[in-house]
Design goal:
Elements: H1 3-50, H2 63-68, H3 72-77
């Protein structure tokens, strides 16, 4: 095989790798977006079930939503600081 053909094959393989990486990045972005929507929806539903009158006044940027998010990965989706678990009396002995 000639060097030109080899170079063409290497370029084609590199283009395929790039396409796969772009697809993976796109998939991860969609998954993160879906997770954000699920978390916001579950927060709204939980808030509405405890006090339906307050539903109209929910502020998703407020402290209530921040305290609702406890998992590290979920907090990172919204760019929030990771919260360390509170120390219990058992931890201090």
């Amino acid at each position: 095989m000639s060097t030109i053909d080899e170079k063409k094959q290497k370029i084609a393989a590199a283009e395929q790798r790039i396409a796969r990486l772009r697809g993976e990045i796109s998939r991860q972005a969609r998954a993160a977006d879906t997770r954000r929507k699920i978390l916001i929806g579950s927060f709204v539903m939980a808030s509405a079930s405890t006090d339906p009158i307050q539903l109209a006044r929910l502020k998703l940027n407020g402290k209530a939503f921040e305290s609702f998010l406890v998992r590290t990965a979920d907090r990172r989706l919204f760019g929030l600081a990771v919260v360390e678990p509170a120390a219990t009396n058992d931890d201090m002995t």
